[in-house]
Task: inverse folding
């Protein structure tokens, strides 16, 4: 099954659970690193070079963010430029964003999991809303990784088959190099199941669903 088809099916499923969330919330079920890596068209370590907001058609703003790939883990190579396509943005005093969507900043360094827009070689959308983007953070001992948790609500399933809503817990990794090495092992199939208690803090829920977009106007 293609990554895009998986993404569309997950969005459709999430519509069924959105009613249980607060009125303006985007509902997500967080995928494991393995699921997200295998089902993404592109996994890249990149830096933001440009952010442009356009009026795609009357009344519809879109934000186009140019990412320069520093290291292509899957689906791209160093030096490529990928454009993140997001519905919404801020232009001429108008503000409209999908709840939970990330606001990219020029110079920001990230590891991005994404799917390509149909028919486009270089336009992508983040794999999920409120997850799938990992900030590269300068630390005392070098660069480390922290997931960017958007303004979303996480749906968690219990062992009894029930579910509950909870805040998204960002996943953190001690080093950038170790994180990328882990992802390459997943791509190669040499690390299909990670020892989460040793690598992830906190551990990620095991289910995969994407987000329910909720357009927020200000």
Result:
């Amino acid at each position: 099954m293609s990554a895009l088809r998986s993404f569309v099916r997950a969005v459709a499923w999430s519509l069924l659970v959105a009613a249980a969330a607060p009125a303006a919330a985007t509902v997500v079920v967080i995928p494991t690193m393995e699921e997200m890596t295998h089902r993404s068209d592109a996994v890249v370590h990149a830096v933001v070079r440009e952010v442009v907001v356009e009026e795609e058609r009357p009344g519809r703003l879109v934000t186009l963010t140019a990412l320069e790939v520093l290291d292509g883990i899957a689906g791209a190579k160093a030096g490529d430029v990928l454009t993140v396509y997001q519905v919404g943005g801020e232009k001429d005093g108008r503000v409209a964003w999908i709840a939970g969507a990330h606001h990219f900043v020029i110079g920001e360094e990230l590891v991005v999991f994404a799917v390509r827009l149909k028919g486009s070689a270089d336009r992508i959308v983040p794999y999920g809303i409120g997850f799938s983007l990992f900030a590269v953070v300068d630390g005392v001992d070098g660069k480390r990784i922290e997931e960017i948790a958007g303004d979303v609500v996480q749906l968690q399933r219990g062992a009894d088959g029930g579910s509950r809503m909870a805040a998204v817990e960002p996943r953190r990794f001690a080093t950038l190099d170790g994180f990328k090495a882990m992802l390459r092992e997943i791509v190669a199939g040499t690390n299909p199941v990670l020892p989460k208690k040793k690598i992830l803090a906190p551990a990620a829920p095991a289910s995969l669903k994407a987000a329910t977009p909720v357009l927020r106007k200000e």
Remarks:
- The longest strand covers residues 42-57.
- The radius of gyration is 17 Å.
- The CA atoms of residues 24 and 214 lie 7 Å apart.
- Residues 3-212 form one domain.
